[in-house]
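Ticket #333: bound-state structure for thiamine diphosphate.
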Amino acid sequence: MQKFSTKSGPVTPSHFHSISCFGCFSYLCYNSAVMNENYDIFRCMLLIRRFEERALAEFSTGKLFGTTHAYIGQEADAAAVFSLAGPNDIVWSNHRCHGHFLAYGGDPYRLAAELMGKSTGLVAGRGGSQHIHWRNFYSNGIQGGIIPIAVGMGLAQKVQKSAAITLVFFGDGTLGEGVLYESLNIASLWHLPVLFILEDNRFAQTTPVEKGVSGSMPARFQAFGIKTWEVDSSDVLEIHSAAAQAFQHVRENAQPAALVLHTYRFAAHSKGDDPRDRETIAQIRARFDPLAIHAARLSFEELAQAEADVSAIIEDAFIRASADPFPVLQELG
Ligand SMILES: Cc1ncc(C[n+]2csc(CCOP(=O)(O)OP(=O)(O)O)c2C)c(N)n1
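RESOLUTION: The complex was predicted; output attached.
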């Protein structure tokens, strides 16, 4: 895998080849001409950011049901990972799934409708924010519960001799779930094509990582013989560089791999439950906002274009979803 600059200038097309046929690109580009890959990546992250901001705003008006966990601050993880995923790969996401789904190429309108419990939602309004499904994308809010399922899907891919792989996302708070370690053991023993993606946003709901996790995060995977890449950065290109190597390892060697991504969550855990010191969060955001870091690689015109395109998409998604009907009982059977 070639290296590419993380300093400035567009990345080479080969690195982001898959973005142009997959990922959130498909929903971002229907309004304007493609400019370059850095622009596409920025728009992907901006789509996630603006979707989440709108979802939080709509929540406070009572239009959304259940709960919602915003991905604000972590956008670079999804943008990098899904620029490398293929359409046949299977994705297991967790409670904080909107960013993963949008970067996967999911329709913001169908997601908005799902959050509102509408019949046009991804699963006809039955799943809400945490339980969505579209194509090869699945999410579930039970911490750790998705991990053995993802390993089972990896086994199915191996048995079927498929070239596809399985991705599974989880947070630092889920390192306390014992089933994770049983899953790592089997994935390694049976050489299953699973990429474990740990997003350490340094908090599990209200528990800071230093109070919930002892020892080394990469060592947890390495103890099972699983090759692991670790990135402590909010720069999407740095994350992409490590993720590309992890994907390559899983695809070429039919072995599991792990990506440990240290990131930041800028918003509350879900809706408004944030006991963290606001001044500290503001300082972290000023230094580690993935959008601001990547925006430095774009022109003023590109940034304005991305903002205009994304806000039109978000407005359309939420307005249309609001007008849609709720499901009738027979549809839910
Ligand atoms: C088995 C289980 N226990 C508790 C919860 C409630 N819960 C939802 S998210 C969360 C914290 C998860 O933290 P982490 O895995 O670090 O992910 P993050 O929310 O930081 O993205 C908890 C305790 C749950 N969903 N499932």
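RESOLUTION NOTES: The mean pLDDT is 90.
TICKET STATUS: resolved
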